[in-house]
Design a protein that fits this description.
The complex is a heterodimer of chains A (about 325) and B (about 450). Chain A has about 325 residues and is of the alpha/beta class. Chain A has 11 helices and 10 strands. Chain A has one domain: TIM Barrel (Alpha-Beta Barrel), CATH 3.20.20. Chain B has 3 domains: about 55 residues, 3-methyladenine DNA Glycosylase II, Chain A, domain 3 (Orthogonal Bundle); about 250 residues, Dihydropteroate synthase-like (TIM Barrel, Alpha-Beta Barrel), CATH 3.20.20.20; about 120 residues, Rossmann fold (3-Layer(aba) Sandwich), CATH 3.40.50.11600.
């Protein structure tokens, strides 16, 4: 008995979003089926991995994550260059960790200076991510948006409380926005509507659904992302048809099991391989749920996931 | 093929006796068709109707059991494509491979790790489930010896992997009482394997070259009376294997296509030589529909993340995960250590206890029963409010463990501090940070 592949019909597609400067433009999105369901759809632009760097030397990274960057953590510019030159980063994500009022509380001017230097040093698209403190991010990202006109940055997180200021600034100075909402499909849609009402064109919007690490709530964002894709692709929910960005590395490498040594927890095995797999598995599961851009940290994890994307999209 | 409600109705007594729990036979028929009722609910249905309806009322994906006793593993029985549509029910069995060409030490190491690599989390024990015993040499005596060794050293479920029926039989002779899964019936050996499976009452995996061949085999075997089948589509390239899993699940659920209505077995160990990539492939099968996942080895650094992935994906999204309420000691606290209170949503508990650990300040964490709700939700629902928190706080016995009288509450629950102070008498209520990430900084400043 001949067996017929049961296909489902899609009626929507994810919007194609161009990122970075004209000369080195990359495109994300464009898929018109569930992630990697290539027997019934297309994924014209396979998901991209952005390598993260910090604006100040990290204080709480486990050794396994720090080792590959030990020679550059003092200097965000050298760090960004190493990501591109040594590890072939397709994008770089600058995490403005030091601006956090609960940490070093560095001023917006300092963040601006670092951003300018990093942007000047690399050709690939640059994501600039705040400390997730609403008030501070609004100040910091606004200054950066205004002073980095022409750099075509991706700015995040842009939240309900900051979308007016940051949406307007991005609109005026030609940046892309990562619209961030806390693990809720309706809130995500609402923020996309608000950005649209403000006049931010669709090709400047990415969605950050807020992601969590394996073992620490991954299932929530996994299902929110699956529901997002279901609505976008099969229910014509136009305000959800945006590429998804997953800022995952900082969530993974802060969990206890990514930090603990083998002497303390012999059953958890080698800390380097364990950390790499915690990051790579989190990344893969988020890809299968619908991620288009992954912000990642460890070169080994990145290499594994890159290889996997290649396998899943092979001809 | 599945029947519609109307077709089922025609086979029922049509007496509307109501003994099945719904008022009419038509309503009962509709429930049957929707999988919401069991045929056994009708006391008057005829034998002929039963036979005809058994097919219609069977679950779209069979449930297959492997092993015996406490370690019995149930796979299959899934009813949805996406976990948020309801829930995934039977987590995939994780198996470790041993072969008759491995050295004694290699086999011993794997069996030892199967036993020792166990992790406790939210009251659950996370561990691998099965041993896949594979004949590579084709020698029945060697296989028999290896199966004997495995049987004696573990009570986990067993998968017997041999293509030659006489080798398979030598393994079954040793361990059929443990209800192993036989792997695998192929186009060449299906008849022999089928009679062994029947004789020993064991479940049987079917390996075909593509889904057409698998369908032909399962159809033939079910016609021969076998029900407990497991499917291997034969694909070993990542992309094809991924697609096959989706197509199998969809055919069973969307088309009620019986020949593919069985759980699957996946073999990452045959798909790559790189152990890190193998772990990643295994996690793909956790998300996308693997029923059994056979690994070349078990190591803590890869097994632990994989078990977390399985726990996450198979968590019932309709039910919040809860930690047991009570007092948790973190970092060996004493009578001068800070006391924090939070809800029993397990995610909150993990994050808060993790941050306290990170701070390296020994502390007491009091977890209040909020029925698995997070702090804000519980507060809104009236479960994390002054009197409720105060009552549990007094009852748990923390007041006898410390010499100071200060309690730290989550920043998001600042509104309850007045009521809580009233409830706790001379205790001082301190409002902690809103975000758990700021707990370490807060605790380092804290003074009794």
């Amino acid at each position: 008995m001949a067996f017929e592949t049961p296909k489902i019909s899609y009626n929507g597609a994810i919007k194609e979003i161009p990122l970075g400067k004209e000369a080195n433009r990359i495109i994300v999105g464009g898929e018109n089926s569930y992630p990697f369901y290539l027997f019934e759809g297309e994924m014209p632009h396979p998901p991209k991995i952005a390598m993260e760097i910090h604006d100040a030397p990290p204080e709480d990274w486990p050794q396994a994550a720090l080792d590959p960057f030990a020679d550059v953590v003092q200097d965000p510019v050298a760090w960004a260059q190493k990501c591109v030159d040594s590890y072939g980063a397709e994008m770089v994500a600058l995490q403005l960790v030091s601006t956090d009022p609960n940490a070093q509380d560095t001023p917006p001017e300092q963040a601006l200076e670092v951003t300018k230097k990093v942007a000047a040093a690399i050709e690939v698209p640059l994501i600039v991510w705040g400390s997730s403190n609403l008030e501070k991010d609004t100040q910091v990202l606004k200054v950066i948006a205004e002073e980095c006109a022409g750099e075509n940055l991706i700015l995040g997180p842009v939240e309900e409380g900051s979308y007016k200021v940051l949406g307007a600034a991005s609109l005026a100075f030609q940046h892309t926005i990562a619209a961030s909402t806390p693990i809720d499909i309706n809130l995500a849609k609402q923020l996309n509507i608000l950005l649209g009402n403000l006049g931010v064109p669709d090709e400047r919007i990415l969605v950050d659904p807020t992601v969590a690490s394996l073992g620490y709530g991954l299932e929530y964002c996994y299902s929110v992302m699956e529901r997002d894709r279901m609505a976008a692709l099969t229910q014509e929910d136009e305000r959800l048809q945006f590429p998804i960005v997953c800022n995952l590395a900082k969530e993974v490498w802060k969990v206890k099991e990514a930090k603990i040594g083998e002497e303390e927890a012999p059953l958890l095995g080698d800390p380097l391989k364990r950390g790499v797999l915690l990051e790579a598995m989190t990344a893969l599961l988020l890809l299968l749920a619908g991620g288009d851009i992954l912000i990642m940290r460890h070169p080994d994890a990145i290499q594994l996931v890159r290889g996997f994307i290649k396998e899943l999209t092979a001809n | 093929m599945a029947l519609t409600g109307i077709q089922i109705y025609k086979l029922l007594p049509k007496t509307n006796c109501g003994e099945c729990g719904v008022p009419t036979c038509l309503a009962f028929a509709m429930n049957l068709a929707a999988g919401k009722a069991e045929l056994a609910g009708c006391p008057y249905v005829s034998e002929e109707a039963k036979a005809e309806l058994a097919d219609a009322s069977a679950p779209p994906i069979a449930v297959v059991e492997i092993g015996t006793g406490e370690r019995k593993l149930k796979i299959g029985g899934e009813t949805v494509l996406f976990r948020h549509e309801k829930t995934f029910v039977n987590p995939p069995g994780i198996a470790v491979l041993v072969t008759d060409e491995m050295s004694d030490e290699e086999v011993a190491g794997r069996l030892e790790r199967l036993k020792t690599l166990e992790y406790e989390r939210v009251g659950l024990i996370l561990r691998a489930d099965l041993v896949a015993v594979k004949s590579l040499s084709g020698d029945a005596g060697k296989f028999e010896a290896l199966v004997t060794r495995v049987k004696n050293q573990t009570d986990a479920g067993i998968i017997l992997m041999a293509e030659d029926t006489s080798v398979m039989e030598s393994g079954l002779k040793i361990c059929s009482d443990r209800k192993p899964l036989m792997y695998a019936a192929t186009k060449e050996n299906a008849d022999g394997m089928a009679s062994l499976a029947k004789e020993h009452g064991c479940s049987l995996a079917v390996k075909g070259d593509g889904l057409d061949e698998v369908s032909d085999l399962t159809t033939k075997l079910t016609e021969g009376g076998l029900k407990n089948l497991v499917i291997d589509s034969g694909a070993r390239a990542i992309k094809k294997a991924f697609e096959d899993q989706i197509i199998i699940r969809r055919a069973a659920l969307l088309k009620k296509y019986r020949p593919l209505g069985f759980p699957t077995i996946t073999l990452p160990f045959e798909m790559t030589n790189d152990s890190m990539q193998e772990a990643l492939i295994a996690s793909m099968f956790v998300a996308k529909y693997g029923g059994i996942i056979v690994l070349s080895d078990l190591q803590g650094h890869s097994l632990f993340p994989l078990l977390l992935a399985r726990m996450n994906i198979y968590t019932d999204p309709q039910r919040p995960m809860a930690t047991s309420p009570g007092i948790y000691e973190i970092g060996g606290p004493n009578e001068n250590s800070p006391v924090l209170v939070t809800c029993n949503f397990s995610l909150t508990y993990f994050i808060v206890s993790g941050e306290i650990e990170t701070s390296r300040v020994p502390a007491w964490l009091v977890v209040v029963d909020t029925e698995g709700l997070s702090v804000l939700t519980a507060w809104a629902a009236g479960k994390f409010v002054g009197d409720a928190v105060g009552m549990s706080f007094k009852k748990c016995g923390i007041m006898d463990k410390v010499s100071h009288k200060k309690v730290i509450i989550p920043g998001y629950a600042a509104a309850i501090s007045g009521d809580l102070e009233e409830e706790l008498g001379d205790w001082e209520v301190l409002v902690g940070p809103r975000e758990s990430a700021h707990i370490p900084a807060y605790l380092k400043e804290w003074k009794a």
